[in-house]
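Encode chain A's predicted structure.
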Amino acid sequence: MSAPLTAPIHWVRRNLVVIVGSLALLYLLLPNVVVMLFSFNKPAGRFNYEWREFSTDAWTNPCGVADMCGSLGLSLQIAVAATLIATAFGTLAAFALGRHRFRGKSATQGLIFLPMAMPEVVMAASLGTLFLNMRVDFGFTTILIAHVMFCLSFVVVAVKARVMSMDPRLEEAARDLYAGPAQTFWRVTLPQAAPGIAAGAMLSFALSFDDFIITQFNAGPSTVTFPMFVWGAAQRGVPVQVNVIGTAMFLIAVGIVLVGQLVGNRRKKQAL
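Encoded structure for chain A:
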């Protein structure tokens, strides 16, 4: 076989992993592209399934649908509160599991990772039964507790992976230079663990914001989050504004990731 014909084959072999990874990433992002595209659609009826006409009406009036922005605000409140609580407790648990030995450590790790392994409906039904037996009124508080319980495991996994990769010699050097425990933590330990904590917090926020199953089992009759609103609206036609909110959340997430990458690259250049 001549060289001009074999050159493309060799190129594909050398870059096969990159090609397959790019195709997989494109496949994963394709639904987001469709949602973004149909956020500029002007459907003829209630269903936004076929492209009809380009329009920015939904973007200029995202709260044009009754109760949608109210449910969105509720989801954001729950997601922020659950993220803060889960990140705080998850970080403490990750440091305890990653750096200390204590009786019952293996059992504690199993209990923490259990919510990640079991189906969401099992945890949702269990928490709902617990709240019923305790005669707790369903609403914001019950959803928040359920989301914290669900997100805690993911925060522990993310932060613990970072803690296990940290170099303890840096903290020993800080103590040799007469830094106190608090100063060592704030100046050395926390900056090293910050990427894992940020990753756990972002994952916790995403899981809490778009959760439906756990929320459905632990929400009150008058408590409607954004995923519950979308589920209810799907029976009579999802408005275009839902695509607008989905696109905005996607772009914000991508922007946060890009900013984090730029900041990380700048710090690496400054360190060099």
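The chain has a mean pLDDT of 87.
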